[in-house]
Amino acid sequence: MASASQTTAYDAVRPRSWWAQALPVWIGLGGFGLYATYRAFENAYFFAAPYLSPFYSPLIDPQHRYWHFSPALLILGGPLGFRATCYYYRKAYYRAFFLDPAGCAVPERTGNYGGETRFPFILQNLHRYFMYLAAIFLIFLWHDAVQAFFFADGFGVGVGTLVLLVNVVLLTLYSCSCHSLRHLAGGKLDCFSCVNFGGPRHSTWKNLSFLNEHHMLFAWMSLCSVGFADFYVRLVSSGAIKDLRLL
Ligand code: FES
User: Fold this and answer.
1) Between helices 215-238 and 198-212, what is the axis angle to 10°?
2) What's the mean pLDDT in 34-51?
3) Ligand 1: residues whose CB is within 6 Å?
């Protein structure tokens, strides 16, 4: 238990430093949001054989036969919805952008705050369905990462291959550490031996729980990697840099 002098010391520090946690979120999520929006509308430099930007994958109607805008806009809702409704990001942006509350020990704003029980925040409960959607996107991204090994002259490895591969591994770790997935695998059970496939479900739940402990880390690493993967493809596709062939 904290002593009276410790409590006084904490109270003196808390109100002044609440923004220290919010600052990286403002910069990270705000910066990513601006960049991703620009890239989604840019509708250019998303492919540099054999690399496809993750912002445009799966690539739908790039010839604009049926859709006259950027193909990224057709698919953006899936990954965006998954991230926006993520339990970790919710905590981060509620604190950093809504300031309600801004941090631990900072008072909530008074008003008719209804949490996630009313529109629009009740839509956050769609997270599980976005998780199913994200699993489909992962299949496409793994396909792109494998395709990145096949150049016009055959099998090879370029810097871009590694960039796309690392990105899809991090996105997979982020998805597999999802709270909803852990709940689905076994988090909702009180007794594993009382249900069908209790043994495999218990091992799956244990492994997912291990990943889940690092969900915040995977959330940030995968956010950086997906932005960087797109940026790399853009640089190569626009001719700003040449992809270095390693093998
Ligand atoms: S809780 Fe973060 S992705 Fe599901």
Assistant:
1) 70
2) 97
3) 86-88, 127, 131, 178-180, 215
Residue 99 has what pLDDT?
81
Q: Report pLDDT for 194.
A: 95
For residue 118, how far is the Cα from the chain centroid? 25
Long-range contacts of 53-57 (CB under 8 A, 24+ apart): 53/229, 53/230, 53/233, 53/234, 54/141, 54/144, 54/164, 54/167, 54/168, 54/171, 54/226, 54/229, 54/230, 55/226, 55/230, 57/137, 57/140, 57/141, 57/144
Query: Which one of 87, 94, 184, 226 would you pick to mutate in the ligand 1 pocket, going by the greatest count of ligand atoms within 8 A of its CB?
Result: 87
> Which atom of ligand 1 lies nearest, measured to the CA of 87?
1
Interval between CA 69 and ligand 1 midpoint (Å): 30
Q: Does pLDDT of 202 surpass 90?
A: yes
For a mutational test of ligand 1's pocket, the pick from 178, 211, 218, 221, i.e. the residue with the most ligand atoms closer than 8 A to its C-beta, is 178
**Is 124 in contact with 53 (CB distance < 8 Å)?**
no
Q: Give the number of residues written for the chain.
A: 247
The pair of three-digit structure tokens given for residue 118, joined into one six-digit string: 């009313």
Q: What is the largest CA-CA distance in the chain?
A: 72
More confident residue, 22 or 47: 47
Q: For residue 86, how far is its CA from the centre of ligand 1 (angstroms)?
A: 4
